[in-house]
UniProtKB/TrEMBL annotation:
<keyword id="KW-1003">Cell membrane</keyword>
<keyword id="KW-0046">Antibiotic resistance</keyword>
<protein>
    <submittedName>
        <fullName>Spermidine/putrescine ABC transporter ATP-binding protein</fullName>
    </submittedName>
</protein>
<keyword id="KW-0547">Nucleotide-binding</keyword>
<dbReference type="GO" id="GO:0005524">
    <property type="term" value="F:ATP binding"/>
</dbReference>
<dbReference type="GO" id="GO:0005886">
    <property type="term" value="C:plasma membrane"/>
</dbReference>
<dbReference type="Pfam" id="PF00005">
    <property type="entry name" value="ABC_tran"/>
</dbReference>
<feature type="domain" description="ABC transporter">
    <location>
        <begin position="19"/>
        <end position="242"/>
    </location>
</feature>
<keyword id="KW-0067">ATP-binding</keyword>
<keyword id="KW-0472">Membrane</keyword>
<dbReference type="GO" id="GO:0016887">
    <property type="term" value="F:ATP hydrolysis activity"/>
</dbReference>
<dbReference type="InterPro" id="IPR050763">
    <property type="entry name" value="ABC_transporter_ATP-binding"/>
</dbReference>
<dbReference type="InterPro" id="IPR003593">
    <property type="entry name" value="AAA+_ATPase"/>
</dbReference>
<keyword id="KW-0813">Transport</keyword>
<dbReference type="InterPro" id="IPR027417">
    <property type="entry name" value="P-loop_NTPase"/>
</dbReference>
<keyword id="KW-1278">Translocase</keyword>
<dbReference type="GO" id="GO:0046677">
    <property type="term" value="P:response to antibiotic"/>
</dbReference>
Length: 317
């Protein structure tokens, strides 16, 4: 898939940087939603911003898009302040709420957005790519949730932007539509377009992002590539398996010196420590003694979800 995107050569403070945020602060009454946040994105990359609900992700993105004003700090998008008139044709925005008029037909909405662009993508082609051709004459309010998401994405990219903001682009999508959006994001990057996305899906961030920023309570708590963030400095290995919930892990650990064990979700077990053939056979034999089959048994690396939970906690927000 190729979008044949075009990029501008207009000067910026740093031609390799499409987004620069320094000391950003945003308050809502007594609540500080964003607290001294720093953020940067390189041109032609996908940056994933992660965080629990209320961490400040959407507020930060809306400030970068020019929809909200910061209380303090400096924000530069493609070298301009977010409210600069000359910036508007150069960015694409996919908000969480969809951003379309309820009564407008899908085709009409996309053509309206395309008419504001200097060199828009072919509307019929884009509708076909995103599987919306059959919904061309359907009012927005009658589209399915997944169709609304895809139309919102189409509106964000139809103008051939240099930088696209995608706020949870695959929320509510089925697996097929989700993969389609992933392919489109990769195509944007291939064509030199920079993409900033927020997501609650850790596998999405690992699959798509060149760089990841994790926020918590309005501050950056970690940043790096997915590989850098998931690297385990202790070289600790993990053995994961599924079995009946509530197994007595304390008894298992008496046979696995130097290891720890937990059941992070009912029926999902993780053993950490020096994992070798002896440890694997010990786990399977221990399960067999209890008449339990250890399924999906595999040695696994630390995931981005593990990093996220370690940094932001496991309690609900």
């Amino acid at each position: 898939m190729s979008l044949d995107a075009t990029t501008s050569n207009r000067s910026a403070a740093d031609p390799d940087q499409v987004l620069a945020v320094h000391g950003l602060v945003k308050r809502f009454g007594a609540v500080t939603a964003v607290d001294g946040l720093d953020l940067a994105q390189r041109r032609g990359t996908v940056l994933a911003v992660l965080g629990p609900n209320g961490a400040g992700k959407t507020t930060t993105i809306e400030i970068c898009e020019g929809f909200q004003r910061p209380d303090a700090g400096d924000v530069r998008v493609l070298g301009h302040r977010p409210d600069a008139r000359e910036l508007r044709p150069r960015i694409g925005v996919m908000p969480q709420g969809g951003g379309a008029y309820p009564g407008v037909r899908a085709g009409e909405m996309l053509r309206l957005v395309a008419s504001c662009a200097r060199q828009p993508l072919d509307v019929d082609w884009l509708l076909g790519v995103l599987g919306l051709t059959d919904a061309l004459r359907t009012p927005y309010k009658r589209l399915s949730g997944g169709q609304q998401q895809r139309l919102s994405l189409a509106c964000a990219v139809v103008g051939r932007p240099e930088l696209v903001f995608l706020d949870e682009p695959t929320a509510g999508l089925d697996p097929q539509a989700r993969r389609l959006v992933w392919d489109l994001v990769r195509a944007l990057r291939t064509d030199g377009v920079s993409v900033l996305l927020t997501t609650h899906l850790m596998d999405e961030a690992e699959s798509l992002a060149d760089d990841v920023v994790i926020l918590d309570h309005g501050r950056v708590v970690a940043t790096g590539t997915p590989a850098e963030l998931t690297a385990d400095a202790t070289d600790e290995q993990r053995l994961g398996f599924r079995a009946s919930p509530g197994l007595p892990l304390a008894d298992l650990l008496t046979r696995l010196p130097g290891c720890t064990a937990e059941e992070p979700d009912p029926g999902r077990y993780v053993i950490r420590g020096p994992i070798g053939p002896r440890e694997v056979s010990t786990v399977t034999a221990w399960c067999a003694e209890r008449g339990v089959l250890a399924e999906e048994l595999k040695v696994v690396r630390r995931s981005l979800e593990d990093v996220f939970l370690d940094l932001t906690g496991r309690e609900l927000r």
